[in-house]
Write a structure and sequence with these properties.
globular; eight-stranded mixed sheet; alpha+beta; about 220 residues; 16 strands
């Protein structure tokens, strides 16, 4: 490893740009240098072992991988999550790996490390204005689903009674098979308290689009 680019990217000696899979940066408001500080400390002077199911670079020329620091075999993603410097992305296909990453994030949350030192790190659906402050950012939102309704090809999980102001989750029809494969039926979430992770959009009120089952977590249920 020769250069840290940001909170989840670094460049190898052979020039390849590596992007860490399975996580999203926790501090989007900081500069790239500030966000990459913890990653730089983790990788300073170390070799890394990389693994990916697909070595094809993305459209920006980056390889998205899981990375282990050598020789102690520390999974870099897990360490960043444990320190509260990252959030789990739902784009992890291996269930055991996803569970380990979520456990690391939960540990940081319980011990209030990194981003979790801020009591507003998880947004509350009862405060849509607070959610709107994070437009375009990867965010965790918690609340109780008041109703589930279908409108054309879209399913809505509503967390308030004012559909134009309150927070809602948008589930396009193409995502229903992914949710069903994980045992998630949108209607079954009615009156349940859940945690949603994804990028906040503004469509009158704040919205998060759900495409993968990993974006939905039932609170207090396993």
């Amino acid at each position: 490893m020769t250069e840290v680019i940001d909170a989840r990217s670094f460049r190898l000696e052979d020039g390849r740009e590596i992007r860490l899979a399975g996580i999203e940066p926790a501090f989007p408001g900081k500069s790239a240098a500030e966000r990459g500080r913890v990653l730089a400390v983790l990788l300073a002077g170390r070799h890394v072992r990389l693994h990916s199911d697909d070595d094809t670079p993305d459209r920006y020329g980056r390889q998205t991988v899981f990375a282990w620091r050598l020789p102690d075999e520390v999974l870099i993603q897990q360490e960043l999550l444990t320190q509260g410097e990252a959030l789990v992305s739902p784009e992890v296909n291996d269930g055991e790996c996803a569970a380990a990453l979520l456990a690391a994030e939960a540990t940081a949350r319980e011990t209030k490390r990194g981003i979790w030192a801020d009591p507003t790190a998880i947004k509350n659906t009862e405060s849509p204005g607070g959610i709107l402050s994070g437009i375009g950012r990867y965010t965790l939102v918690e609340g109780k689903v008041l109703s589930v309704r279908q409108a054309g090809a879209t399913t809505y999980l509503n967390f308030g009674r004012n559909w134009t102001r309150d927070f809602a989750v948008i589930i396009p029809r193409r995502a229903l098979a992914n949710l069903a494969a994980a045992g998630l039926v949108p209607k079954s979430l009615e009156n349940k308290r859940i945690r949603i992770r994804g990028f906040v959009e503004a469509r009158t009120g704040p919205r998060i689009e759900v495409l993968q089952a990993g974006q939905i977590e039932l609170i207090g249920e396993k």
